[in-house]
C-alpha cells in the first residue's frame, strides 16, 4: 500500500463527527489477505499460500465432522442393535436359575422407569441338520412378553414370534445360523442339550427335534449366527428346570437410567439376586467405540493444526514483504498494537473462512453419508464394511451440534494461536531500518 493511499484512508476513518464502523487495522488486514498488486508475482504467491491454508483448514474440519458423525452413528446403531436383542436390565438368580420369577417381575414392574418385563430361559446347545452341526445359544421366551422387551419381532424375515407354541417344539433361527445349517422354515433340526440322560447303557445326550418356524435377522453377526428362540415351556422341559427360569428381562422408559434402576431394584427386591444392566454386560463394545472416537478426534485435529500453522509461514512472508508498509504506518502514528492487530486480522480471516467452509462441507457430507458411501462402493466395486468382519455393515451417521461447535471452536482457536508470533514480529519492525534502502 503506497503512502499516498494511507493518508486519505486514515483521515476518512478518523474524521471528527463521523461514525467509525471499521478501524483501519481491520481494513488493511483484510486487504493484505488478497493480492491487489497485479504486477507483483510475490503478492500472488502469498495469496495462493493463504488460499491453500484456507483449503487445508476447511478439509481438516470437514473430515473431522464427518468422522465424528460416523462414530456417533456407529455408537447409536450398535446400541440399538444390541438392545434390540439384549435387555436394558437383567435379573438372574444363583446358578443362572430363578424361582418365583412371577413375584420378581411384579416387584420390578412397580419401579416407575420399568416399562415391561419378560421371563426367559438361557442355555447352550448343539443344533444338527443332516451332517451339519453348529453351536447355538438357546433362548426360551414367551412370545407375547418378549415382544415388549426386545425388537426381534420387527426383525423377522420369515414367520412371527407367535409361531412358537407351548409343546409345539418350534424354533426360530438367526439368518446366518439357518444358512450354515442349510435349513428353511418347515424343515427339522435336532437340538442336542449338554445335560445328558443317565441310563443303564451310560450317559446319553438329550436330543429333541424342532421344526423351524421362523428366521430373524438382527444385522449383527454375533446374534444372527448363534441365537435360536424356542418357547419358554419347551426350554423348561428340555433343560429340566421345572417352573424355574434363568431370569427376567426388563425394558426401561429411559435406557440411560439403567444403572439407577439396577441399584434401586437391588435394594427393593431384597433377595439373593444378581441384577445387571446393559452398560455393564456390553461395556466393552461402547467403551471401544468411545475410545476410537476420542483417538480419531485427536488424529484429525492434528491435520487441522498443521493447516492452521501454515498461517504462520503465510504471515511471516507477508511481514517480510510488507516491512516498508509497516514502517510507513508507524511513521503515521500507528502503534505496535495496531500493527499486531493488522496481521492478527489477516490470519484470523484465513482461519474463519477455512473453518466456515469446512463446517458447511462437513455438515453436508455427514447428512448424506448414506448416499455418498454407496456411490463410492459402486464406483470402485468395493465393500467398506463386510458383515463377516463388522457388526454393522452400513455406514451410519449421527450429526450432533455439540461436535460441530467443538470442532469449529478448536479450529478457530488454533488459527488465532498461529497468528500471534508473526503479528508480534511485525509489531517489532524498526521503521528506520525498514526504510533505509527504500
Structural notes for this entry:
It is a single chain. The protein is α+β, with helices and mostly antiparallel strands. It has two domains: 3-77 and 286-434, no CATH class; 87-280, no CATH class. It is 55% helix and 18% strand. The chain is built from 16 helices and ten strands. The chain has a six-stranded mixed beta barrel with strand order 2-3-8-5-7-6, surrounded by four helices. A hairpin with a 2-residue loop joins strand 6 (188-199) and strand 7. Helix 11 packs antiparallel against helix 13. The longest helix has 45 residues, at 41-85. The two termini are 14 Å apart.
Q: Tally the beta strands.
A: 10
Strands in their spatial order, largest beta sheet: 2-3-8-5-7-6
Oligomer kind: single chain
Shape: elongated
**How big a fraction of the residues is strand?**
15-25%
Quote the average pLDDT: 79
N- and C-termini, Cα separation: 14 Å
Number of domains: 2
Summed up, the helix count is 16
Rg, Å, rounded: 34 Å
- Largest β sheet strand count, sense and barrel closure: 6 strands, mixed, barrel
The sequence of SSEs as H and E is HHHEHEEHEEHEEHEHEHEHHHHHHH
- Helix fraction? 40-55%
Structural class: alpha+beta
- The low-pLDDT segments are 1-21, 37-41
Secondary-structure map:
Elements lengths: L2 H12 L9 H10 L7 H45 L3 E4 L8 H9 L4 E16 L2 E10 L1 H7 L6 E3 L11 E5 H7 L6 E12 L2 E15 L4 H4 L2 E5 H7 L8 E6 L5 H12 L4 E4 H4 L1 H39 L1 H9 L4 H32 L1 H12 L20 H27 L3 H4 L4
Parallel strand pairs: 3-8, 5-7
Antiparallel strand pairs: 1-9, 1-10, 2-3, 2-6, 2-9, 4-7, 5-8, 6-7
